[in-house]
Amino acid sequence: MAEYQGNRDVLALLKEAQEKPGYLAAELLQQIARDCRIPVGHLYGVATFYGFLDTRPVGRNVIRICQSVPCYLKEVDAVAKAIEDELGIKPGEITGDGRFSLHRVNCLGACDHAPAMMVNGRVHVDLTPSSVIDILGEYR
Amino acid sequence: MPEERIVLRHCDTIDPEDIETYLARGGFKALEKATGAMSPTQVVEEVKGSGLRGRGGAGFPAGVKWELCAGTPAAQRFVICNADEGEVGTFKDRYILERDPFSLIEGIAIAGYAIEARQAFIYLRAEYHHLLGPLSKAIAGIRERGLLRRPDGSELDIQVREGAGAYVCGEETALMESIEGKRGEARYRPPFPPTRGLWGQPTIINNVETLMNIPAIVLNGGGWFSQIGTERSKGTKVFSISGDVRQPGVFELVMGSPLQELLELAAASDTKMVQIGGAAGRVLPGDQIDTPLSFETVLGAGSVIAFDTTRDAVAVVLRNAEFFAEESCGLCSPCREGTLAMVEILTRLSRGEGTDRDLAALEELGRVMMATALCGLGQAAPNCVLDTLQHFRPDYESKIKHLAARG
Q1: What range does the domain containing B60 cover?
Q2: Alpha carbons B306 and B277: distance in angstroms, whole number
Q3: Are residues B184 and B295 in the same domain?
Q4: B67 domain-assigned
Q5: To which H or E segment does residue B116 belong?
Q6: What's the Cα-to-Cα distance from B286 to each of A42, B37, B90, B222, B388, rounded to whole Å?
Q7: Is the Cβ pair B89, A110 closer than 8 Å?
Q8: Boundary (domain end) residue, out of B308, B327, B349
Q9: Which of B69, B101, B169, B405 is the right S-S partner for B202, CB 3.0 to 4.6 Å?
Q10: For position B406, what pLDDT does the model report?
Q11: B103, B174: one domain
Q12: Mean pLDDT, chain A, as a whole number?
């Protein structure tokens, strides 16, 4: 119970910390650990467990394309290919100018409007290989 | 059986940003009745009598869960609403949260009263970040009106906790670890959450849809609810249907309705197979679409994905296997290693490089995982492999060189 009384929302803490730099570098995690008196090993364990927390650099805009079955049935692989061709990167990579990084993720819960992707905190749906290029233009 | 609206009764009739529209349609009358005219025990009895079972997939009787929790002596008890629907093909909770956050909050408030909790959490998946603002705003509006204050002067606090992208956190014990600020690794059970849950305190965890049923049960009585549905599946079920259908979406049907009815509502055609319950679910062949949807047969969390006759079972199953290999938390070896082995074998098969031993190996591996994995994730991962091996074996055999040549 004592743990609950002093409880802080660790996931929110880490998400907020990574917002500006884009990822949780080792030095940043050490800083948070000292400030919040949480063991750094614990924070690292958490940061590496969750898909929306990154311990390595990502792009200024993070593209997450769904790879689950409902999107697969609606040709999401063609959409992913269009993005890869446009940006010249593969999943897991960052563009040379740091503008985008590309990631394949699991079900975004938008299967009624498949195929779907998430860019930063926003979900885009009913994608086609051409519409997706226009959407990327919205992100600087 | 017709479409029947209990859970979705206020969706598209109220404005989710305007609580007045909810109040005008009788909103918070159930909470008022519960806290004003019923004891906490009476509320628990009503829910027990309704026969309502958990809508997240496991189907545990909600009233029994509440009774266990309320009966465990503790300084503090918690209510958790599981809004981490990560099951592939499930989007019903998103649909509900977008259209009617108020009924959910009313359901949570009634649950909090029934188990005498002062703190509730809604665990919202990170993929639904767009709902964080509206949901928090709805809670704040309700609190400001004093609707969460009880006759004894206590007040229920409801916090939204946002996840960070981990499928396994939909599993109740992993979810509690996550709220506690840890890696979302499942716990060994027992003890079960109603006796020892969040921070070691008695906790009820209910799915969004389960809690959406509570206001109607309190208003109309458990007896009314138990008249709807089948013998062991009371009420309605909200389904998310996607895949090879012309009208994907969310539909609420009386429990026990045939799968065919749902497929017709979504305008499916040339259906080869249907996966029910998401990546973890069961696969039914197209000639079994008269199967009733209920806990007695197949249900899961209500994800229904249709595949038409152009689809290859192995390609679909490989996608599912990759999903599990990625989402396995890694704590127990049957799941951590088993999901990877499945991907390896299925990848080889899908390249047409399968061997005679592969199908037997998949079957044996599947059985071992089902029997020995720590939590539901690893236990359910082999479902679609085993089902398709049973119903669509030619899809597999065509990928084994000498068998394909013979065929």
Answers
A1: 23-226
A2: 12
A3: no
A4: yes
A5: none
A6: 49, 50, 21, 36, 12
A7: no
A8: B308
A9: B69
A10: 60
A11: yes
A12: 94
Q: Does A7 touch chain B (CB under 8 A)?
A: yes
Answer whether residue B322 is part of any domain: yes
Rounded mean pLDDT, B201-210: 98
Residue numbers in B near A24 (CB within 8 A): none
Give me the pLDDT at residue A1, please: 47
Same-domain check for residues B293 and B320 = no
Q: Compare CB distances from B181 to A9, A53, A118 and report the shortest one's residue.
A: A9
* Residue A41 with chain B: CB contacts under 8 Å: none
Structure-block tokens of residue B180: 């506690």
Cβ within 8 Å, pair B198-A4? yes
Q: Tell which of B226, B257, B280 closes a domain.
A: B226
The H-assigned helical ranges of B9-82 are: 19-24, 29-37, 40-50, 62-70
- Beta strand spans in A6-99 (E): 61-66
B387 with B338, same domain?
Answer: yes
Q: What is the pTM of this model?
A: 0.94
Q: Which residues of B touch A114 (CB under 8 A)?
A: 242, 248
- Residue A37 near residue A4 (C-beta atoms within 8 A): no
Phi-psi region of B235 (alpha: psi -120 to 50; beta: other; left: phi over 0): left
Q: Is the peptide bond before B191 cis (omega within 30 degrees of 0)?
A: yes
Q: How far apart are CA B292 and CA B261, in angstroms?
A: 9
Q: Distances in Å between the alpha carbon of B34 and those of B28, B216, B325, B370?
A: 10, 11, 45, 42
State whether B323 and B298 are in the same domain: no
Q: Return the H-helix or E-strand segment holding B53.
A: none
Using an 8 Å CB-CB cutoff, list chain B residues near A15.
162, 164
Please say whether the dihedral angle defined by the alpha carbons of residues B66, B69, B73 and B78, taken in this order, is positive or negative.
negative
| Rounded mean pLDDT, A107-134 | 97
Contact between B151 and B123 under an 8 Å Cβ cutoff? The reply is no
Average pLDDT over residues B173-190: 94
State whether B354 and B318 are in the same domain. yes
B292 and B330: one domain? no
> Cis ω on the peptide bond leading into residue B334 (within 30° of 0)?
no
Residue B51 has pLDDT above 70, yes or no: yes
